[in-house]
Protein 1
Amino acid sequence: MKQDLIYFLPELIVSITVLFLFLLDCFIGKRSRRIFPVIAFIGIAAMMLANKSSSPLPSARFFSDMMVFDHVSVLFKYIFGLAGLIAIVIANGSHELEKVDKANYFTLLTALVLGMMLLANAHHFLMIYLSLEMVSLLSYILTGSLQGSRRSSEASLKYVIYGGVASGIMAYGISILYGLTGSMTLTGVAEFLRMNAVSKTALYTSVLMIMAGFGFKVASVPFHMWCPDVYEGAPTPFTAFLSVGPKAAGFAVLLRFFFGALSQTTTSGIEPIKIIGLPALLGGLSIATMTLGNLAALQQKSMKRLLAYSSIAHAGYMLLALVALNAEAVTGVIFYLSVYLLMNLGAFLVLIIVGDQLGSEDISVFQGLSKRGPFAALLSIVMTVFMFSLTGIPPMAGFIGKFYLFGSVIKSGHYTLAVIGMLNSVVSLYYYIRVVKIMYFDEPVDGRNLTTPMVSHASTVFALALLTIYLGLFWNGLANIVGQAKLF
Amino acid sequence: MPMIELKDIAFIILALITLGSAGGVAFSKKIIYSGFSLLGSLFGVAGLYILLSNDFIAATQLLIYVGGVLILILFAIMLTSKIGDIAVTNKSINWKVAIPIIAGLACFLISSFSGDIWKVADKTPYQSSVSFIGNALLKEFLLPFEVISIVLLCALIGSIVILKREVK
């Protein structure tokens, strides 16, 4: 048990932070609310340090096979920690969240990070279900945290209803899988499937049902309907977090499910369980997801909705790598998630800076942004970096990310899928570049100039842009770290 | 013809009670009827637990869902003023499309789950499950047990956050 706690140290630190913040809320008056983001920040930063110190430990399962520790889990904890830290910086000082109770917002955000960490390392279906519910519940609450805003409440309610249905279907699927295999752990299921024959249709049905829960988290078709409305209604600083954090957690559990429960590692590498046509299922889902996301994004007027559909499309690209089901796919997905974290949070932060000052979140707010004073000119360059990176144009990090994703697909021999993925990137070029076009070639609708925002926002947005370019030029360091990560 | 055992008959009766009442919840035009139909559904599930010789879970199902949650729901309905004036949102629309879809789905599920496909647990003589559950919660299921407490705490505080008035 003592050994188990060493593996659990990062989660423990975040749990203690959450509980401490809840308690602190009872004793601290309205005036010293500023301390909450600071403590949340310190807690998550401490988690990342503990995570670093635990990284040399060998892979293990702990707490009676409930959780798993491996290098993939270490990497995911870094992603969640970084997403949490940036989300705290973004939320702190945003105009939109002025009326929201800071104490609760930051506490619940930290708890959300904890939920994602548990989800990414869960090995038992009970833990998967519980932590998925934790992530969902907290997402509903934070989506609806704008009091008095109809849009925010509506988004939250929609999210609850879709989420309830999705997790209900998932629980049904898990119970069928348990009925078929008699095991509740991922590796237990794989072991049973390797040794025994099971009914193909029943297994296929249960996997599809379980995909409802995971697909809902990553916003893949046909469980994407919540995404545009929730992204639009939620406070933008939280939307930014929602688009990277829970999505990354969803992919973590997808990786674990497909590689842990439905594949086997043989001498020649990873092989999917033959009994079900996993590549066909996932390939279909991923093509539908990216095509729908890209086509719907073409006609959006609201920047938040555009980014919502773009996030659906990016989920499609990452699902594409899962089709390959090889070691490169794990690398590809984790590398892409880390790059996506930087560029998407960056794009949202630009939107928050611009939207806070000009009072709108439509794409039209970017019209002639480069002509709104010196800071705006600089911000336009930064936004261009993010847009190019999201499209996947070299030398931005997004290009390298897509290179790894499509590389894993090509290596597995699914050439058609890779071509469809690339064609989709071309479609996405249209709506990303349109934003760049109107920033530079259109005239601003009024004479207002953009003033410099608070230091934390400005420095974060520039740091994210620099990192996006840096990883586009010198990706080897990150790629090596990610490439060495082994599942289980 | 295969022998129909007594437990199969019991299962069919309990399943019919559960599903029939669930239908009542979904299709009732008045919310109070939906609330009362829920009673049958929750009772049926408790019966299914007993059929699986899970005495403790069945008792908690009765105590918490029937005795607690359902009574709360009924009180909430009865104490809400003008609840009859609310426009009914669960009208049956598009049933011509829905019935074939649901029938197809039901046929698919029944056909894929019927037959001898399940892993059957070893038969053991009936034992009270209380001590087993207590041990499991403090041994191999300790982590989920603790995580649930954090999840519930967050949900509790979150619901207060949503309901609370704006901070001035």
Protein 2
Amino acid sequence: MPQTIPGETGEKLRSFRALLAKEIKVAFRGRHLVGVGFGLAIVLSATLGFSLAGTKVSERVIASLLWIVVMFSSSDTLSRSFAKEEDEGTADQLRLRVPMPSVFLAKTLANAFFVLLIACVVFPLLCFWLGVRFSALPLVGLLVLIGCPALSFAQGFVGYLMSRGRALSAAYPVIVMPVILPLLVCLVLATSQALAEGTFSINLVVVIISESLAALVAGLVLVPYIEEE
Amino acid sequence: MVASNLSKSFGSKMVFAGVSFDIEDEVWAIIGPNGSGKTTLLRIMAGLLKTSSGTMEWFDRKKKYEKFQLSGRIAMCSPDLGLYKEMTVFENARFFANLAGVPVPDFGVWGLSCHLEKRYQELSAGLKQRAKLMTAFAMARDVILLDEPEQHLDAEGKAILDNMVSSFGRLVVVATNNPWRDWRKIAQF
């Protein structure tokens, strides 16, 4: 590995906690997460809710709408976070202090938290407007808890890559799509099963968890090599 | 820190070539006009940039350091390096002190005691520079690299900087086009 992690475990943990806290603080004080992330989530949910209220909508369509709104509302928070660090010169400050995989992991975990918060806005609103059965909500909630970190983990490495090749940043949604499409399809299928049948295929959850963890581990392994170049 | 025949080019543009030095704990200067490659050389010394040719050795000369393996030993203050604009002066200092495992710096020394609760983006250019210098000096263990450190500083700020540079006691490298002391030179472009 071209990168070593100096210090002891306690020191690493302290650094990592500081990085995580910084991510959350900077995101909530910046305009993007609150203005664009939550704003878009509420506007999209309300638009869909008012348009479809009183209409009989199939479970698969409801599930698709739920995850599409979450995905679009949260799609560029992570890539923006990486790009912002590069633009403002704080990325190099971090490079002088901590190994970049720690930064990558902290950003990805913080983003998972943000996606979860956005989902906490989107799901109740859409479930209310689209008349989702109350009995299905615990399972849908479980899928949200699994799906939001999974979406974040899957997007993390692409977001990081985009920040390193700034000319590519406009192409982020196009490049990230093949990575998250299988995940999104599995999430939609599992959610529609939960809404319709009150259960979901465990195989879908295994695919969701496996793909997102594989993407996360690939990111952690590849970040040092990309930094090296 | 030992460099042998360093050169750096970006594409077909050669920034500098044939730079060699062998420096130890003292204050050293890289002097040259704008665009001459001072910042590029400092970034190579910090391990943030690779050379196009030549070798760079840090600390333990038997060990081959890769980029970013120098984490925690070198601090740098440069116009290209910023602090978090959404965080206050105190929060920035505490955050970087936590990363470096050092105590929060003495804000009074840098004349920043009255500005602790101000967000970095609310500071004037001179105070931003003081905050960046304070953070760099607080984190520096072995080496501090300063790129145009006097930029935006008033007379008081320059006096503080001069005092900190003189009393650091380890390796300080200052890249400037206007050296305010007669330091030994690593390179004059």
